[in-house]
Amino acid sequence: MSINWFPGHMAKARREVEENLKKVDVVIEILDARIPYSSHNPMMDDITQHKPRVVVLNKMDMADQAETDKWISHFKAEGKYPVAIVGRSHQIIGKIEPVAKAATEEVFERMESKGINKRAIRAMIIGIPNVGKSTVINNIAKKKIAKTGNTPGVTKAQQWIKAGKNMELLDTPGILWPKFEDETVGKKLSLTGAIKDSVVALDEVAIYGLRFLLQHHPEDINKFYNINADADTGVIELYESIGKSRGLKMSGNEINYEAVTNRVIYDIRNGKIGRYTFDKVSDFNDDSQ
Ligand SMILES: Nc1nc2c(ncn2[C@@H]2O[C@H](COP(=O)(O)OP(=O)(O)O)[C@@H](O)[C@H]2O)c(=O)[nH]1
Ligand SMILES: [Mg+2]
């Protein structure tokens, strides 16, 4: 399965990002900490290869902390500057600014050696929809400037936002479409709410989520739904038991499978069952992110 979205939009988004890149010293790529591999658009690497990269693992409140720590080490080993945050929390600038400073140290040293006056670090935020770009920009700017939502939008008149003591941020994020050849990546994007519901069949998304949890966190899911399943439990049986325990029935007392699908996706997407990381760093260690 390969989803190409709208090639025209992709090309336009890419051009915009490339234009804006010329104006900044550092790129701040926002990823969903639950899926640091799947929420990364590989196109980023082509277009930003000459810029230092801060990698923000956002929504860390919904991810598995031990896995987040492993991803941080992984990105460091790749020469990137990672930091994990909760986009809505206080003091995110205090976390991002020092990392952006470390990432641009060489650039500024070079400028200084050429006698160029020191100025603020210029940065832009990039990421696929729904990773929290607007949330982060709004938080840093301390006023509502970036529209929060999942529609890729372009503002013509761009502004620099003062961000922290020594940083300026482009007010509009670079939006890249998620790109995936791999069906599992598509399911993870859907499971975390990064892509629209219609792109991947929802029952497959729910089943993927249930299988992941039964394999890695069976106690959590059994307790949460008050069921008794394991990695070998069949899909029908699983749906029946969740439907029964949650009272998701149709007239005639039959289990409403669609309702079970929707409930499972809702519970996982919103972190109701627990904090999970669906991309394990050990599965992607050979990939150049
Ligand atoms: N739990 C949690 N939710 C977040 C966090 N950051 C953003 N969100 C939510 O994620 C959704 C998408 O955020 P948004 O800023 O619109 O993403 P954008 O499309 O990248 O601009 C919104 O519902 C936010 O409230 C975070 O750190 N933790
Ligand atoms: Mg947004």
TrEMBL record:
Primary site of residence: cytoplasm
Alphabetical UniProt keywords: Cytoplasm, GTP-binding, Nucleotide-binding
GO BP annotations, alphabetical order: translation
InterPro entries membership: G_CP_dom, GTP-bd, GTP-bd_ortho_bundle_sf, GTP-bd_ribosome_bgen, GTPase_MTG1, P-loop_NTPase
CP-type G domain ranges (all copies): 14-178
GO cellular component: cytoplasm
GO molecular function, one term: GTP binding
TM ranges: none
Pfam families named among the record's database cross-references: MMR_HSR1 (PF01926)
Keyword Metal-binding attributed: no
Superkingdom per UniProt: Bacteria
Residues that bind GTP: N58, K59, M60, D61, N130, V131, G132, K133, S134, T135, G174
Subcellular location: Cytoplasm
Protein task: Required for a late step of 50S ribosomal subunit assembly. Has GTPase activity.
Annotated family: Belongs to the TRAFAC class YlqF/YawG GTPase family. MTG1 subfamily.
The name this protein goes by in its record: Ribosome biogenesis GTPase A
